[in-house]
Amino acid sequence: MSKASLERYLAQHPFFHGLRPKDIEWLASLAQPLSYEVGDYLYREGDASTDFYLIQEGLVRLEIHTPGRGDLTIQTLGPGEVLGWSVMIPETRKTFDARIFQATRLLAFDAETVRRRSEEDHHFGYELCKRFSRVIGERLQATRLRLLDLYGQPH
Amino acid sequence: MVNLTSPIPRPDPMLPRPFRVTRAIRETADVVTLELEAPAGPPLRFSPGQFTMLYVFGVGEVPISISGDASKPERLVQTIRKVGRVTEALCKLRKGDAVGVRGPFGSSWPLEQAKGGDVVLVAGGIGLPPLRPAIYHILRHRKDYGRVYLLYGARTPADLLFSEELKRWQHTLSHAPGASPVLVTVDRAEGGWDGAVGVVTGLIPSLHLDPTRTTAMMVGPEVMMRFTLAELRKRGLPEAKLYLSMERNMKCALGFCGHCQLGPHFICKDGPVLAFPQVRDWMTRKEV
Amino acid sequence: MSKSRFVLERSGLEQLLQALKQEGYVTLGPTVREQAIVYGELHTLQDLPVGLKDWQEGGVYKLAPRSDAALFGYNVGPQSPKQFLHPPLLRLFRAHKNAQGFAVAEEPEAPPKYAFFGVRACELEAIRIQDRVFLGGPYQDPHYKARREQAFIVAVNCTQAGNTCFCTSMHSGPKASTGFDLALTEVLEGDRHHFVGAVGSEAGARLLTKVTHRPASEAEWSQAETLVAQAARHMGRRLQTEGLKELLYQNLEHPRWEEVAGRCLSCGNCTQVCPTCFCTSVEDHSDLAGQEAWRTRRWDSCFTADFSYLHGGSVRVSTKARYRQWLTHKLATWQDQFGSLGCVGCGRCITWCPVGIDLTEEVAAIGGPHVQSQP
After folding, report:
1. Which of residues 115-154 of C touch B (CB under 8 A)?
2. Nearest Cα residue in chain B from A80
3. Is residue B273 part of a domain?
4. pLDDT of C294-325, one tens digit each?
5. Are B83 and B165 part of one and the same domain?
6. What is the CATH number of the domain that holds B241?
7. Neighbouring chains of A at 3+ CB pairs within 8 Å?
8. One domain for residues B22 and B135
9. Which chains touch C (3 or more CB pairs under 8 A)?
10. In this predicted structure, what is the pLDDT of residue B174?
């Protein structure tokens, strides 16, 4: 993808939409396009939070390994979704494994660089925080819905 | 003396017609599909979205959505989840057993009105069987519809219904080569599941559709439908094009017993399929 | 029109009862039983509550002797023609096992021919309302229809109104305007005791020919009208019906619902005595051998805990939700469903509520100061 088309892609993406053009430009130059094959690990439990990701294609599975029960799936994330909301919080470590389940193309954004710019430019930082907050909220709401076990047997 | 004009006299609509089970398919641990035929007389013609009252001799009667092909009424197909005494008895029936049938009852999916546009079908859990007749209709008239999506959320992979058909529909419902019209997700998965895990509403933001020309039809637990409605409205779908299949306690299915009321609507005759504007003021209230 | 106005002496009325019997009717009308006026079979006029009056208030019903021998000197009791047109218990069908599975046999429908004697205007309106429920929709209830089509109705216009009456608010009385075969107004003055009547149908006209009667004079007719008009002026309660649907639709979360729920016992008396309440439930039975099965239909009430049972629990769990359902159905959603109000202003629900809950008072409380319940 050319830089110009990458900027257009980011600008219309629901997560980045509304950011100032110069911020879009900055993110576009930071973005690192990566490809992963089925079975690859994006990161493992305990890894430092080095990047956040924008999934363009494929399926990423968040898992946790339990002796005796194997790999338990927390959630899957697909095209258009953002992975790695904890980047805005310094010194966090990953609580789950992120494994590729369908061949994936994504854009990775270096966390340290994003955090440094956010400290320097609070407007940029606040805009990103708002967006990550929304992602966290959606994840929480979805998790709560699943906790309700709505499809389970009525009691 | 009263002079009451009566329409064409028909037999008492409270009398069940004995049908025969021709096939009993165990779909999952607590779901069975029965294929029924009328031993005598005409087959039961229905429209997608309608339901029947199924009677187990001496045990009781329950409303069950018809889950078969409306263009093949000789085979009446009903998918039942075991949740109580009567449904448990229905799930135990075998080939050759008799089942009482009354119906069909209720309103049907807006398949005519949806023509010429995109369609989103959202099924939660046991909500897929009532949508299957709509899928069959769309497949039979594929050119009348644009992009068609089936979003299906189940509890676990073991609870997924109609897995073989889901695979076939991935191709046959497709609007263009490479499109993925069928999106399946589960709330919980372990080990061997290689598909999506998450709430079915999470599948909505990534759909490619023209919201102004899209009709949505959904069935599932009411909470799931409320969240689905919210996500679809966020995508810009007009409220009048959002259709739900509602459920309430039913005894007669004729509008006489009063049990199935949701506000002014009798779910048995004004529903079960209702457009969102009809139920908006009622389904958001507690204990209505 | 004056050809259809007549006068019956007391003896003529007695003849009317006999004529109905000869036509094969089971005549049902007000009788006294267990200190209340309930529907019973009438063989002679003496079976009526002669010389009795009733006193009704919220949660109170009393009978007392009158100073005259009026036959209809009271208002309505706990029952209505609903008891017979929409029976409290009915067997719908029987089924028996056979080689193919089972066969269903319809109940042989031969309900008795009923003549309702002494039906009040509010009860006529209730019958019209239930006609819409059971005969006006996509399906017709054959049991209601069979009883209804054969019914003969002798209406009586009220010449006094009770404390809990508000038929004028509901435009359902006190004068019977339509839906009867014959309608009578009792006139008692001095030693004169006669009935001024109107013919309402061909069947009514035919039956009248079997009975000694004479045309009513203008004066007699006018006197009867005056007596009925007097009842209209003494209604014990009032209900504002204009904008009632919107009022209730807009106040589903009004604090008054919680307040009335604190008094309501959810006993369901109101639904039993109400002449328009129609909810039923079905039960399936079988014999011990499992060879015979049958289904019965019985009256049900939206006040019962399981009425709205769904998926492991009821939708309307609290008394507040159930009372709200009953009242908003009766006065609001009924209008969207059947094109009329569900209430006829008979006041039975007020009289027979053990704690005297008064729906006119509840509506007034929700409506605010511009809505009054006492006239």
Report:
1. 131, 133-135, 137-142, 145, 148-152
2. B206
3. no
4. 999 999 999 999 999 998 889 999 999 999 99
5. no
6. 3.40.50.80
7. B, C
8. no
9. A, B
10. 93
Full-model pTM:
0.90
Contacts of A140 (CB under 8 A, 6+ apart): none
From B5-14, B270-279, C139-148, the region with the lowest mean pLDDT: B5-14
* Cα separation values, B285 from B2, B228, C86, C251, C272, Å: 42, 17, 33, 12, 28
The residue-averaged pLDDT of B133-155 equals 97
Shortest CA distance from C325: residue in chain B: B288
Same domain, B46 and B128: no
Share of chain A above pLDDT 90, in %: 74
Residue B223's nearest CA partner among B82, B104, B125 is B125
Query: Chain A: residue nearest C313 by CA?
Result: A155
Give the per-residue pLDDT at A95.
87
Tokens of C311: 């998926």
Least confident range of A137-141, B9-13, C45-49: B9-13
Please tell me whether residues B95 and B129 are part of one structural domain: no
Backbone torsions φ then ψ of C331, nearest 5 degrees: -110, -15
Q: Is ipTM beyond 0.85? A: yes
Assigned domain for B287 exists: no
B123: in domain: yes
Domains of chain B: total: 2
The verdict on B172 and B214 lying in the same domain is yes
Position B263 in a domain:
no
Asked if C295 reaches chain B (Cβ–Cβ under 8 Å), the answer is yes
For chain A, list the domains and their CATH numbers.
33-147 (2.60.120.10)
The chain B residue lying nearest A99, using CA atoms, is B194
Contacts (Cβ under 8 Å, ≥6 apart) of C189: none
**Using a CB-CB distance cutoff of 8 angstroms, which residues of chain C are in contact with residue B11?**
106
Token pair belonging to C78: 């706990």
Chain C residues with CB inside 8 Å of B100's CB? 95, 102, 104
Which of B106, B107, B51, B65 has the alpha carbon at shortest distance from B254?
B106
User: Does residue B3 have a pLDDT over 60?
Assistant: no
Distance from CA of A117 to the nearest CA of B (A): 29
Residue B11: what pLDDT? 65
Beta strand B118-124 with B31-37 is: unpaired
Our CA-based measurement puts residue A72 at a distance from the nearest CA of chain C, in whole angstroms, of: 30
User: B170 with B217, same domain?
Assistant: yes
CATH number at residue B52: 2.40.30.10
Check whether B155 has a pLDDT greater than 50: yes
- Which three-class secondary structure state does DSSP give residue C181? coil
Q: Which pairing describes strands B76-81 and B98-105: parallel, antiparallel, or unpaired?
A: unpaired
Confidence of residue B6 (pLDDT cuts 50, 70, 90): very low
CA distance A72 to A61: 10
Domain that holds residue B21: 17-105
Q: Which of B12, B61, B266 lies closest to C106 in CB terms?
A: B12
Which of the four pLDDT bands, split at 50, 70 and 90, describes residue B191?
low
Spell out which residues of chain A touch residue B188, defining contact as CB-CB under 8 Å: 73, 146
* Residues of chain C neighbouring A154 (CB-CB closer than 8 A): 311-313
